[in-house]
Automatic annotation (TrEMBL):
Species in which this protein is naturally found: Novosphingobium nitrogenifigens DSM 19370
Record family assignment: Belongs to the methyltransferase superfamily. UbiG/COQ3 family.
PROSITE patterns reported in the protein's UniProt record: FUMARATE_LYASES (PS00163)
Ligand binding (S-adenosyl-L-methionine): 43, 74, 95, 136
Catalytic activity: a 3-demethylubiquinol + S-adenosyl-L-methionine = a ubiquinol + S-adenosyl-L-homocysteine + H(+); a 3-(all-trans-polyprenyl)benzene-1,2-diol + S-adenosyl-L-methionine = a 2-methoxy-6-(all-trans-polyprenyl)phenol + S-adenosyl-L-homocysteine + H(+)
Domain of life of the organism encoding this protein: Bacteria
Enzyme Commission (EC) number: 2.1.1.222, 2.1.1.64
Gene designation per UniProt: ubiG
Protein name, entry field: Ubiquinone biosynthesis O-methyltransferase
Known role: O-methyltransferase that catalyzes the 2 O-methylation steps in the ubiquinone biosynthetic pathway.
UniProtKB keywords: Methyltransferase, S-adenosyl-L-methionine, Transferase, Ubiquinone, Ubiquinone biosynthesis
Length: 246
């Protein structure tokens, strides 16, 4: 009997260790994950709008994911998984760092939320059938981008919605996200590796290779007056909805 083709690993152990070391401060809005706390409302506004548009849910309802399954990949300590659960979703969340899963589980339990947290590599879990799949600022940290996107696609149910966000590989992102934010202490040193950032065109091609269709990306920009906000400027970071090719 022939051995099955091995699944390429997507986890980089050094990246998992880096984020695992930050686990204890993940929920502190003034700690090492402060930038994520500022970014989360911007991402959630996009996610909510895409959920309503894709599934035809009432914009006034507080639980647009009621009766739907959601998967958050690279969940950290649950900054996105918890809002998805509050939107009514039956949420599974995966992370490469065991420390993050421990913090996430304790935080959800303290808040009375039921979330199925799992530690490991999404490419090796065989998960599927999710109406919503999210992965925020993760693809730039994985060992094999094509395998990772393929695993996300395999987890998506027919008719489902995927939402991804990631930094763009531009001169502006190198100056502001890497050299600026890390040197000023806004982001922990070693968080970003500019050469691993992915452009919208590169992401589009990876998605097409996995049988997925990319929507029009929206930029996440920053200005002194507006702070972090959704924008047509994709130079720093962008967020995009994805569906399965018909």
């Amino acid at each position: 009997m022939r051995n099955a083709t091995p699944i390429p690993a997507t986890i980089r152990p050094d990246e998992a260790a880096h984020f695992g070391n930050l686990a204890a401060e993940w929920w502190d809005p003034a700690g090492s994950s402060a930038m994520l706390h500022k970014l989360n409302p911007v991402r959630l506004s996009f996610i909510r709008a895409e959920i309503d548009a894709h599934f035809g849910t009432d914009k006034r309802t507080l639980r647009p994911l009621a009766g739907r399954r959601a998967l958050d990949v690279g969940c950290g300590a649950g900054l996105l998984a918890e809002p998805l659960a509050r939107m009514g979703g039956t949420v599974t969340a995966v992370d490469a760092a065991a420390e993050n899963i421990a913090i996430a589980t304790a935080h959800a339990e303290a808040g009375g939320l039921t979330i199925d947290y799992r530690h490991g590599d999404i490419a090796e879990m065989g998960l599927g059938g999710f109406d919503l799949v999210t992965s925020m600022e993760v693809v730039e940290h994985v060992a094999d981008k094509a395998a990772f996107i393929g695993a996300l696609g395999a987890a998506l149910a027919d008719g489902g919605l995927m939402i991804l966000s990631t930094p763009n590989r531009t001169t502006a992102s190198r100056l502001l996200l890497v050299e600026g934010a890390e040197r000023l202490g806004m982001v922990p040193r070693g968080t970003h590796h500019w050469e691993d950032f992915i452009t919208p065109i590169e992401l589009h091609d990876l998605l097409v290779g996995a049988g997925l269709k990319m929507g029009n990306p929206k930029g996440i920009a920053w200005s002194p007056t507006a702070g972090l906000h959704l924008s047509d400027n994709l130079a720093l970071n962008y967020i995009v909805s994805v569906t399965r090719e018909a």
